[in-house]
Amino acid sequence: MWNFVQNRRWYYLFSSAVILLGVAAMVYSTITFGSPVRLGVDFTGGSLFVLQFKGAATEGGIRTVFTDFGEGNAMIQRLGRLEDNLWQVRASFMESDKVNQIKAALGSSIASLDTNRSTFDVVNPSIGGEVTRAALYAVIVTALVILVFIWFAFRRVPHSVRYAACAIVAVVHNILVTTGMMSLAGLLLGWEADVLFLTAMLTVIGFSVQDTIVVYDRIRENIPKRRGEPFEAIVNRSLLEVLQRSLTTQLNAIFVMVCILLFGGATIKQFIAVMLVGLMSGTYASLCNAVPLVVSWELGEFRNLFGLLGPRPSQA
Q1: Whether residue 134 has pLDDT greater than 80
Q2: Which residues contact 222 (CB under 8 A, 6 or more apart)?
Q3: Dihedral angle at the C-alpha atoms of 86, 87, 88, 93, nearest 10 degrees?
Q4: pTM, two decimal places
Q5: Strand 86-91's sheet: what is its strand order?
Q6: Is 51 in the same domain as 173?
């Protein structure tokens, strides 16, 4: 039987390397932009256009006009039905002269604007702050719920609180990896975090727990069936028994996201990319971090952090 758990030290090292790369990107981003990730207008404030065209308009055509005026990162969204020709655009702060120039360029290159239904407003950055605080509270509450739920659900398993703690470590791993990816994308590709980024992060947190609980549940079933067998062997057996199911489930979602990323609209590509990285990180953390961490804790490998690189304690 393949000993998957035996290689846990390499999993920890790989996760540490990826997280350190992300942390380095966040530090550099903080020095450059003043925040760990490059913030969009939802957080910094900016301009909000509601554009009612009298003729057909496309996202690509609107983006081209805004890009010509230095607003390549503008968020463009269709409102209503296809035939309504109503669009919303979020961009950075701009003077009234620039606003008028953009409207004139849109009218000449795409279609005339209905001045009665086309509006321009300033976005208040406090909206982003409120959403951020709400998301932070949601993450904290989610962590507490996970801790209590896993501790209660696995209360008949020895040291059940360890399972809950390792699951939360895996969640933190996914948050750091995903945030690091977004920070790196902001530095290299100019991506800006918006409310959809927070939505993706909260979704990733939910996804990252389900695989972990599936493996934990199989460990709980196998412990009484395999009495006398080393704990590491029981965990390894349990993980291998659900490995195919976990990978199949996650790969289905990953394939769909890759297709959307390749063929979807520009507006949602950033959201899908964050979801994709988060889902891949969640799958890895569940199988290669959360479960092996339980073994390391059981074998006393955390008593000396450097013991992870030294000889293993006896399993007798």
Answers
A1: no
A2: 234, 237, 238, 241
A3: -120
A4: 0.76
A5: 75-79, 86-91, 46-52, 119-123
A6: no
